Amino acid sequence: MKPITALSVASEVYPLIKTGGLADVTGALPGALAAHQVTLLTLIPGYPAVLKAIDKAEPVHHFADLLGGPARLLAARKGELQLLVLDAPHLYDRPGNPYIGPDGNDWPDNAQRFAALARVGAELGQGLLPGFVPELIHAHDWQAGLTAAYLRYSDRPGPATVFTVHNLAFQGQFPHELLPALGLPPNSFTMDGVEYYGAIGFLKAGLQLSDRITTVSPSYALEIQAQDAGMGLDGLLRQRSHHLSGILNGIDEAVWDPATDTRIPAPYSTRKLHARALNKAALREHFGLRSETDRLVLGVISRLSWQKGLDMLLETMPVLLSEGIQLALLGTGDAELETAFRQVAQSHPGQIGVAIGYDENLAHLIQAGADALLVPSRFEPCGLTQLCALRYGTVPVVARVGGLSDSIIDANEMAIAAGVATGVQFAPVTADRLAAALVRAHALYCDRPVWKTLQRNGMRADVSWRRPAEHYAQLYRALLNARNPHLAM
C-alpha cells in the first residue's frame, strides 16, 4: 500500500481551538489515518489560543502581504498533530470566539480571514514549501471552501481535493464586490464557480469545485439532496451526487473512556456498571436534583438553538415533569432559550437543573451520571454527544435524522428481542413525538434488565475512528487512482 501525503485545511482543531464537532473530527482524523499510511498535516489559523498551545513553532515561510498585512507560516506540533499555523495577526489576533466578535456579530472581515486560510492551503498544494507537496487536500466547511476555487482558477497544477460538509446550514456568503480583494478572477463569478445567488459562496465553491464531497453521515448525505434539507444547495448536490458520500464520524476513545476518565468521580466499565451510581449522585448534587434513586435523570449537552430542537423540550416539559423525570442540562446559545430554561429550573428546583455555558468537565459528568441523553435535533449532520453517550452507557433518546439515525438502534420490540437495541428514536421531529419518546424511554428505564442491556449494548458499540478512517483512506486512494490511473495504489 503506497503512502499518501495530504493536507487538511480547517478553521478549528481539537485540542487547540474548538467551538463544535468540526474540531473533534479534524483533531482525531490525522492520527486515525496514520494506520492506513496516510500522513495528514493540518493548516489552521494562528488564533491566540493556538499560538499559545503549540510546541516548538518554526517559521517556514513569510508573506509580505496576505490579504491586508504581513504573515508567516509556522511548522509546529501539538501532541501527535503535525501543524502548519498561519500566523497573520491582522486577521487572527483577536480574543474569544474565532468567528464572532465581542458584540455578538460575525467579524466584519471574515471573508478575508478565511479566504486567506484557503489561499495558503491552495499554495501549499502547489508546492509552496520545498519538500512538502501534498497529493490531496482535505478542506472542511465553508471556512476552507475557497481552497478548491484558488486551485481551479490557478494556471499551475494542483492536488486532488476533498471537501467535507459538517453542517450545510453555515454557508459563508459574502458580497460579490469582494471578489478582487480576495484574489479571485472575474471568470470565477459564475454559476459553475463561486457565485451563489449574487454573492460569493464559500461553501458553494467547495461543493462545486472539489473533486469529491463528503458529509459526516450517510443519512445526512441523502437528506441534503432533498429540497427541505438542502438549504438552497440541494440542486447542486443532486447534480454532484456521484461525487458525494457520507462517512459517519467517530470519537476519540482515549478522551471518552469511562474506565479511565479522570474527570468523573467513579470510573466504570460494562463489568462494573454499578459504579455509575456514584456519578449519578455527584451529578444530582451538582445540579441540585433530589436524591431519589428510582428517578430517571435525563441529560442534555447541546447548543441551545432551533436546529437542536431544544424549544421542543420546553414544550414537552409538562410531560417530563409528570413522568417524574429529572433534567440536567448544559448548554448555551439563543438568549430566549437560555432565559426560558433558567426560568423552568427556578420554577422546579430539585427536578430541573440548568447550567448555561460550556464546561468540558461537566459534560463528562453528565455522560457518566445521567441515565439517558436527549438529542432532539431537527437536523443533525452527525452528532457526537450520542456517540459519547453510547460509550458511557447513557441511553440516547434521539430524533431519527442524519447521523442520529445512523448511529442509534431503536429499542423496538424486535431490536430488543434480537439483543441489538441501543437507544430510543422518534420521528417525525415534533413536540408530540418527543413527548412520546420520553414516556417510552421512562418505561424502558423502569424495566431494569432491558435498560442494562441497552447500556451494555451501547458501551460495546464501535464508536471509534477505525471504520471512518478506513473509509476516508479508501476515498483518498480511489480519487488519486482516478486522477493517475498509471500510478494505481
UniProtKB/TrEMBL annotation:
Positions with a binding annotation for ADP-alpha-D-glucose: 18
Reactions this protein catalyses: [(1->4)-alpha-D-glucosyl](n) + ADP-alpha-D-glucose = [(1->4)-alpha-D-glucosyl](n+1) + ADP + H(+)
Domain Starch synthase catalytic residues, every copy: 7-239
Pfam families with a match to the protein in the record: Glyco_transf_5, Glycos_transf_1
Domain Glycosyl transferase family: 286-438
UniProt superkingdom: Bacteria
EC code: 2.4.1.21
Biological or metabolic pathway of the protein: Glycan biosynthesis; glycogen biosynthesis
GO cellular component: cytosol
Keywords: Glycogen biosynthesis, Glycosyltransferase, Transferase
Single GO MF annotation: alpha-1,4-glucan glucosyltransferase (UDP-glucose donor) activity
GO terms of biological process kind: glycogen biosynthetic process
Gene3D superfamilies with a match to the protein in the record: Glycogen Phosphorylase B
HAMAP family per UniProt: Glycogen_synth
Function: Synthesizes alpha-1,4-glucan chains using ADP-glucose.
Family: Belongs to the glycosyltransferase 1 family. Bacterial/plant glycogen synthase subfamily.
Protein name, entry field: Glycogen synthase
Protein species of origin: Rhodopseudomonas faecalis
